[in-house]
Amino acid sequence: MEPDRRRLVARTALRVLAAQGSRGLTHRAVDAAASLPPGSTSYYHRTRAALLGACVDELVEQDREDMVRMAPLVEAGDLGAVQDALTDLVCSWVTTGRERHVARYELTLEAVRRPEVAAVLHRGGQAVRSQVAGVLAALGAPDAVQRASILVACVDGVLFDRVVGANAGVPVERDEVLTMVRRLTALGS
Q1: 55: closest CA among 38, 30, 35?
Q2: Where in the chain are the domains?
Q3: CB of 81 within 8 A of CB of 144?
Q4: Across residues 100-104, what is the average pLDDT?
Q5: CA 175 from centre of chain
Q6: What average pLDDT does range 45-57 have in this prediction?
Q7: How far apart are CA 101 and CA 107, in angstroms?
Q8: Distance in angstroms (rounded) separating the CA atoms of residues 9 and 27
Q9: How far apart are CA 125 and CA 119, in angstroms?
Q10: CATH fold for domain 48-185
Q11: Which residues, other chains included, contact 91 with Cβ-Cβ below 8 Å and sequence gap of 6+?
């Protein structure tokens, strides 16, 4: 049961971070939001730095899980299906997954002042880029590593723009995202 409790604490911490910002992320706030007895969060993550690390680890795990769900499409070699799945993923991140990305941006700002958070975020970002490069390589894309880096950066930009940026709240059009994904994953030149 302990791994489930750890994950509950990490997921709840992300929700608290998204709702209350970095200053609102406390052990007590996570305990209350998760309906856990006082002291539960500090049992698993003694310091605030450890709690922030758990948040980053949870974000990385959620990203990995999203990529794993796409694996059967990659194995089938169906570029169109991968493009559709990636489009749906981006659209869901902007809508139902918005909270997760607000928390990610809070952590990104924390990383500016906390090298330990920056290091974990960097490793997570590299892992995502590596997974995306693997997907693109499996589909036959030339320069898969460079393309993955560009694709991830572009998706990050769209997410930022639509979640907290100038176009936050503007409905994302699936066709617009699909066009971007198709251009960024085109296997030609």
Answers
A1: 30
A2: 48-185
A3: no
A4: 95
A5: 22
A6: 92
A7: 10
A8: 9
A9: 10
A10: Tetracycline Repressor; domain 2 (1.10.357)
A11: 172, 174, 177
pTM of the model: 0.87
Does residue 1 have a pLDDT over 50? no
Q: pLDDT exceeding 70 applies to what percent of the chain?
A: 97
Greatest alpha-carbon span in the chain: 57
CA 46 to chain centre: 24
- Contact of 90 with 157, CB cutoff 8 Å: no
Give the DSSP letter of residue 78: -
User: How far lies 126's CA from each of 62, 123, 141, 145, in Å?
Assistant: 14, 5, 19, 11
- Per-residue tokens: 150: 């560009």
Task: Please tell me the least confidently modeled range out of 36-45, 67-76, 159-168.
Answer: 67-76
Helices 115-138 & 144-163 angle (0-180, nearest 10): 120
pLDDT, residue 188, reads 63
CA 106 to chain centre: 12
